[in-house]
Amino acid sequence: MTAIEKIAGWLAGLLATFTVVFLLTPLVVTVAVSFGSSAVFTLPPSSWSLRWYEALARSRDLWPPVFASVKLAAFSTAVALVLGTLCAIGLLRGQFRGREAVVTFLVSPLMLPGLVIGIAMLESFRAAGLRDVWVSLVLAHVVITLPYVVRTVFASLSLFDFTLIDAARTLGLTYPKAVFKVLVPSLAPAFLTSGMFAFLASMDNYPISIFFTDAWTKTLPIQMLQYVEESPDPTIAAISTLLILLSIGVLVLGDRLVGLRRMADL
Amino acid sequence: MSTTRRFDPILLLAAPAVAYLTVVYGLPLLFLLGRSLLGTGGFSAFAGFFADPFSWIVLGNTVRSAALVTLVCLVIGYPTALVLARAGGFVQAAILVAIILPLSVGVVVKAFAWQIVLRRDGVVSQIFTGLGIWDEPQRLLFTETGLVIGAANIFVPFMILPIYSVLKLVDPRLGEAAATLGASPVYRFFKVAIPLSLPGIITGIAFVFSMAASMYVIPSLVIGDRFQTLATLTGRSFLFMRNEQLGSTTAVVLLALTIGIVVASSRLSRRLGGAA
């Protein structure tokens, strides 16, 4: 190893360390603030308390949006997993011109501005006479979750050797059984990863949801932004800390099931 | 390539998703575009928009802040992806956790946390004055620097992951082979490592730039109303000012900008033959 390589490696390590600290900063701040006793956000807190967790337990504005968001994210992710997997198989196995363009279209909701998508949907839904808040939210959130599934399952499938299914059939399995025993297990990590990213994207969506929520049905990010703008206190830090704990649980479980490495296949 | 190829029925599996996105997402966007370009006063609305100097400030703010965010993400994201692809064990796990865990905290809460960090009495100010870099405490909150820091923090995973997914497939022996053939480290970096990871870099840049150009929540909390971008102006026009004419003009300009990036990046990476 030459000197210049050593310096380059050292520099990359330094920048990577910085990135890890940088990425975790808002999480550390959130957790620290949630255990502070003061309503003004001093860091580090002058004294520690659980009062914001008590406030959270008593809160009547925060829990309904939490449940609404979880329900919405779970349902739209489930729909996206089914539609997206079928779509990825169809697109990968059926060769045709312009396939790349179709894939780009399917993934594009990830990159186009949410506000503009929201406005366009709101106008079209209204023109079609659709006014139901819940139906509109589900329709919109499947658009948010579907690209993650298509992208990850498509990438995972393009590494899959489809002759394995023929091999399994030669060995005596029926076609559905061969698919279930061979294809499904090799796609399991892709399901887990894309499901996780899709679920979190739905949970966190503000710019599209804002056009479909009303005073009675609010999703978590919308309630939280209102909270931060109107009466900021560390109660939202407390609920975020609980969400961080939940994700640590999911990460540990995911690591056991498929390994942390494969969970990063976005 | 034969023109009379038989239709492959397996393509029907893709039909529900494609039809769904066409009806619920593609057509509404087309209607929005059509109505704003062809509708009453459509063309003059755009002429008016581009004649107004304020619009150019807004456009400049949008492109400049998104470009800065993308640059910061690339500078810290590429080395991180490289370390992630080469490392194993604890280092790899630490980076992966640092990428995935913050996704569980919403954008609202992260922007709120950066409000606290970037204040005059915040952690950054304390560290910089403590190190003697700053003579007196400064606030980064409500500045463009603060906005870029907060936004880069939220979008950097979308730079790291596409680059990582390409780098982990690169055979490390290629670099060794180049070294054996006498290539210098600098030459190897620019002629071997960078070209091999280019599809990931392009995807990462396209993701981060288009997300940063479209961000709405982060600027509203970190920089405030003085700094308007196409996205914040669109949001305010529709949600607060009820000025749908202005809102749909800025929405279409923003849409055109991001569609341009999506199309350009997918063409570029296809030409490079990358699947990222």
Automatic annotation (TrEMBL), chain A:
Residues 66-254 form the ABC transmembrane type-1 domain. Keywords: Cell inner membrane, Cell membrane, Membrane, Transmembrane, Transmembrane helix, Transport. Pfam families: BPD_transp_1. It is found in: Cell inner membrane; Cell membrane. InterPro entries: MetI-like, MetI-like_sf. The chain crosses the membrane at residues 66-89, 101-122, 134-157, 178-201, 235-253. It is a multi-pass membrane protein. GO terms for biological process: transmembrane transport. It comes from the Bacteria. The keyword Zinc does not apply. GO terms for cellular component: plasma membrane. Belongs to the binding-protein-dependent transport system permease family. This is Putative spermidine/putrescine transport system permease protein. It comes from Bosea psychrotolerans. The lineage of its organism: Bacteria, Pseudomonadati, Pseudomonadota, Alphaproteobacteria, Hyphomicrobiales.
UniProtKB/TrEMBL annotation, chain B:
GO terms for cellular component: plasma membrane. It is found in: Cell membrane. It holds the Pfam family BPD_transp_1. It is a multi-pass membrane protein. Residues 59-265 form the ABC transmembrane type-1 domain. Its main location: membrane. InterPro entries: MetI-like, MetI-like_sf. Keywords: Cell membrane, Membrane, Transmembrane, Transmembrane helix, Transport. The chain crosses the membrane at residues 36-59, 66-84, 90-113, 147-167, 196-218, 246-264. GO terms for biological process: transmembrane transport. Belongs to the binding-protein-dependent transport system permease family. CysTW subfamily. This is Putative spermidine/putrescine transport system permease protein. It comes from Bosea psychrotolerans.
